[in-house]
Amino acid sequence: MEIKKTAIAGTLESSDIQLTISKADNGISIDLQSDVKKVFGDQIESVIKDTLAKLDVKDAKVKAVDKGALDCVIKARTIAAIQRAAETTDTPEWEVL
Amino acid sequence: MQLLNLKDREVFREWKEFLESLGISNFQENELAQIDSTLGMYNDAGSLVATGSVAGNVLKYVGVCNKFSVHGSHFNTIISSLMNLLAQNDIFHVFVFTKLKYSQSFQHIGFNELAHTDLGAILETGDTDVKDYVHRIPQQPNQVDLQVASIVMNANPFTLGHRYLVEQAAAANDLVYVFVVSDDVSLFSTTERLALVQAGTADLNNVVVVNGGQYMVSYVTFPAYFLPTPDEAITYQTTLDARIFKNAIAPGLNITQRYLGSEPFSRTTGIYNQVLQKELAPAITVHVVDRKQASGQVITATQVREAIAQNEIATVQDFLPATTYQFIQKHLTTLQARIQKGMTIHGN
Lengths: 97, 348
Description:
heterodimer; A: alpha+beta; 4 strands; globular; B: five-stranded parallel β-sheet; 12 helices; 14 strands
């Protein structure tokens, strides 16, 4: 799936994560900010990367501001941001998840 | 969370009293007029506990009462609501100017500080940042070995005075970047000013004209409504401008020289020049070049704008490169219409 424009999903409230996804031309880059980055940083990044891979996003710039989100929340916010950024909110590909 | 209609007198009064209780005291017409939308959060008792506004892509008038909230939660809620509001309008690159003591709070939610002074800080967040901006500016393959100079100008419009400054820099350096301030608050639009600088320097092959983006923010438009006195505001604005240039822009382009025109008339610009010299040294050498004169007069863009208003452009022909003069001749009625509509021709 191709990222066509910048999109944002999520909030900065406790237990949530704010994800901004924008266009890129050389793979996936993730800029993660989290109070629990030392312990869970790799885990958070891998959830974002897996979700991007499942939706076949090859090039994207991701900015993530985590406020202690669980994996299911991270996944949900990533899917929402990708679909907005790829302008596919009307035709979601649920089956790949 | 709801949109506040500040046009409603009762809503405005409560909003203003709330912010005043938090130490924000400037509610001047020209600041308020720039606000696009304002959000507010109320508690169960119906009183305002948090608010924030957006003006273009700048967050303003953010105020949070933490008396009843778990550490910072109202703040995070109001900022993410403002960012989602901006996102609906496809604005993802967001700036905030704030008191120094709140810089940490913004950094905690993904903002990066561009510069700060004792009085305040400027931060940005979103899908692009100052590194991307510097990265997009064209560079020479051997740039690290070159002596690189810079000029920041509004060029409203580009005169022979500007041209003289560029020529001085071009003669003494390998490469010169001319950054054109991109605030659309001038008689000539950003696109027009950029095009006229480009046209007026096209024959100088070591000069690169660049849009100053939002990082060469002219001191004209730095919001400083949270500072009590005009003098503090000027010092704060100019110091921030100098520090962003020195720390975030110049290193990536190997800029070591900056050229300024001497400022005999405007007190504000005079202060600006002094602050720049103090802040940029020693990494960047500042050269102040005396203003060029034509027919015994110092050239200023202000006089050119006045001549346009008075319909006497022939009187300033000697001040202008042919490219600028022809542009004014061709678009005289458009420019005059802008002045009639209330575009100010004074200031910068």
